[in-house]
Amino acid sequence: MIDEHFVVDAHVHTPRLPTLKPAWLDWARDFAGEYPWRTVYDADGTVIPAAMDDLMAQEGVDRVLLFCEYSPRATGIQAIEDNLPLVAYNPERFRLVANVNPHLHHPLADEVERQLALGAVALKIHPVHGAFSPADKELYPVYALCAERGVPVILHSGLSVFPGSRASYGDPSLLSDVVEDFPSVNFVFAHGGRGWWYDVAAFMAQARPNVWLDLAGLPPKKLPEYYARFDLVRLARKWIFGTDWPGVPGTAVNVRAVADLGLPAEVLDGVLSGNALRLMPGLR
Q: Which residue in 35, 48, 73, 233 has the fewest CB atoms around it within 10 Å?
């Protein structure tokens, strides 16, 4: 816990470093600054579960959602199996998030089934790094499976700094039909429409009960600026805290920066953990 707040970091990357493109390492170095994320890795670039668990404990993080990603054109391969040792070491703190790429996996629903069987509590789709539309009908069986299983879908929304990315697929409005076609699926727009889509993402979150925004990669002190056209307290009821670790100056730093926004206590609790716990029962 941080300052008596139960904390879920709903957006964390802990890949094996040799599987990544150099741009990922540059991103982590540039955005983390002096944050000691490299201390959780061994000399071969593999996460040391005890070290990562200790760091998250020191940061006061109670639950951590571990992302995998199959995006060879942009960041590389972050296989879900590489996160299994962390979950095995501390299954209370760490949880898996699945990922599929229609250019790599077929049938898509079969691969989602496989990763859910490993213990994933959510599914991440990365249209920008994978260069595909999140509204492609090939993904509909995946969304149907998530509806059947009660699994939320996290989608990258907004821009990306990585070469090979296709920003046009980060437009949240591409999901306008999908969120209507699958009203029982909770869709989380990662990065909250980062770039020139903040308004689109925020409007959809307020207009649709099954649309949420995660704050990963967004400096908390800038949130009032990014969402200046919206009632911040009302919008914050649809926020989910996440850092985009390791590209962050520190989890506790960001938690306290969110707290400094002056949100009502019950809204802040929802942002830091309550909303994620409601969407992902597997986090409890």
A: 233
Indicate the helix (H) or strand (E) that contains 70. Answer: strand 69-71
Q: How far apart are the C-alpha atoms of 87 and 77, rounded to whole Å?
A: 19
Residue 176: CB atoms within 10 A of its CB come to 16
* Per-residue pLDDT tens digits for 132-148: 999 999 999 999 999 99
Query: 132 — alpha (psi -120 to 50), left (phi > 0) or beta?
Result: beta
> pLDDT tens digits, residue range 31-65?
999 999 999 999 999 999 999 999 999 999 999 99
Q: 175, 202 in Cβ contact below 8 A?
A: no
Q: How many angstroms separate the CA atoms of 67 and 181, rounded? A: 26
Q: What angle do CA 96, 196, 168 make, to 5 degrees?
A: 65
Eight-state DSSP code of residue 139: G
The burial class, CB within 10 Å (0-12 / 13-18 / 19+), for 97 is buried
Rounded CA gap, 202 and 212, in Å?
9
Q: State how far the Cα of 231 lies from the Cα of 240, in Å rounded to an integer.
A: 17
Q: Residue type at 269?
A: D
Instruction: With both helix axes pointing from N to C terminus, report the angle between 140-149 and 108-117 in degrees, rounded to the nearest 10.
Output: 30
Between β-strands 211-214 and 239-240, what pairing exists: parallel, antiparallel or unpaired?
Answer: parallel
